Amino acid sequence: MSTEVCNETDVEVDETEFVDLAAWVLRAMHVSPGAELSLVFVDPDAMETLHVQWLDLPGPTDVMSFPMDQLRPGTPDKPTPPGMLGDIVICPQVAAEQAAKQGHSAVEEMLLLFVHGILHLLGYDHAERAEEREMFDLQRRLLLTFLSSR
């Protein structure tokens, strides 16, 4: 699996931790080792521009996902084919604000947002209550098992 990380902010980010998390999540979701993914950290102004351009919503948001090849989770005996999952964009400043409200670190929030973004690239959504429960339970389980394995 190939994960490219680009930090366009002044916020210090341990890129290796995000690459390792991507590998963990994609293996757990039975995504082909040939899959590609990119993660970009941006400042609030850049995130606001994306938020307005793509969702017509004001202000910066925490995370946005841009799927490419419409890959879906595989199974142990039939992983997804290789392809480009897409791009995930995270705003560390918005993540830090949310983390402070939730009582955990900004890094933990960004890791959670990254898992959330990956699941969106794999076709998960949270528009309906049942979808939200499924997606949020899965993202929590994936992140906790990753963190406990370190």
Detailed description of the structure:
- This protein is an alpha/beta fold and 150 residues long.
- Helix content is 49%, strand content 16%.
- It has a four-stranded mixed β-sheet, sandwiched between helices.
- α1 (15-28) packs across α4 (106-121), α3 (92-102) packs across α4 and α4 packs across α5.
- It is globular and about 45 Å long.
- Pfam families: YbeY (PF02130).
- This is Endoribonuclease YbeY.
Largest sheet: 4 strands, mixed
CATH topology: the name is: Collagenase (Catalytic Domain)
Poorly predicted spans: none
Q: What would you call the structural class?
A: alpha/beta
CATH architecture: 3-Layer(aba) Sandwich
Binding site for Zn(2+): 116, 120, 126
Keywords: Cytoplasm, Endonuclease, Hydrolase, Metal-binding, Nuclease, Ribosome biogenesis, rRNA processing, Zinc
Function: Single strand-specific metallo-endoribonuclease involved in late-stage 70S ribosome quality control and in maturation of the 3' terminus of the 16S rRNA.
GO molecular function, one term: metalloendopeptidase activity
Task: Break the fold down into its secondary structure elements and pairings.
Blueprint: E1 2-7, H1 15-28, E2 36-41, H2 44-55, E3 63-67, E4 84-90, H3 92-102, H4 106-121, H5 129-148
Parallel strand pairs: 1-2, 2-4
Antiparallel strand pairs: 3-4
Concise account of the structure shown:
The mean pLDDT is 96.
What are its keywords?
150 residues, alpha/beta, Collagenase (Catalytic Domain), four-stranded mixed sheet, 5 helices, 16% strand, globular, nuclease, hydrolase
